[in-house]
Amino acid sequence: MQQLPPCPQCGSPYTYEDGDLLVCPECAHEWNPETAPAQEEGLVVKDAHGNVLKDGDAVTVIKDLKVKGASSPIKAGTKIKNIRLVESNDGHNIDCKVPGIGAIKLKQEFVKKA
């Protein structure tokens, strides 16, 4: 039996074949392995401890962060699931949803991989 590649969206190793497509049961992502684009190596985002982050990772905030327009800060130790990495000129390379705050972009130096 051949080894199937992990899901390019969430990294799950539990992919399966459905005709010509590969399917991820965890995030429902479907892709064709022959026409799938190569992983982009240009954007490398590392957390405060030097661990490489990827889309779908969970991170923990390492210091209290004030948020403009919010009544309370993001507390140190807040766990954020399912991050998305984006290219940014101002250093806010992590796009995520913070519980109690909502959608926000964070700098990589204020998080660690969970």
Structure description:
- This protein is mainly β and 114 residues long.
- The chain has strands spanning 16-18, 21-23, 30-31, 45-46, 52-53, 59-61, 79-80, 84-85, 94-98, 102-106, 111-113.
- The chain has a three-stranded antiparallel sheet, with no helix packed on it. Strands 7-6-11 form a three-stranded antiparallel sheet, with no helix packed on it. It has a three-stranded antiparallel sheet with strand order 8-9-10, with no helix packed on it.
- The radius of gyration is 16 Å and the shape is elongated.
- The relative contact order is 0.18.
State the main characteristics.
114 residues; mainly beta; three-stranded antiparallel β-sheet; 0% helix; elongated; YjdM
What's the quick description here?
The chain has 114 residues and is mostly beta strands. 0% of the residues lie in helices and 28% in strands. It contains no helices and eleven strands.
Strand content: 25-35%
Largest sheet: 3 strands, antiparallel
**What percent of the residues sit in helical stretches (DSSP H or I)?**
under 10%
- The total of beta strands comes to 11
Specify the overall morphology. elongated
Task: Name the helix and strand elements from N-terminus to C-terminus, one letter apiece.
Answer: EEEEEEEEEEE
What is the topology, as strand order, of the major beta sheet? 1-2-3
N/C terminus separation: 33 Å
Structural class assignment: mainly beta
How many helical elements? 0
Mean pLDDT: 88
Cα-atom Rg, whole angstroms? 16 Å
Can you tell me the residue ranges where pLDDT is under 50 for at least 5 consecutive residues? none
Pfam family, one: YjdM
Domain Protein YjdM N-terminal: 3-32
Domain Protein YjdM C-terminal: 45-114
Protein name: Alkylphosphonate utilization protein
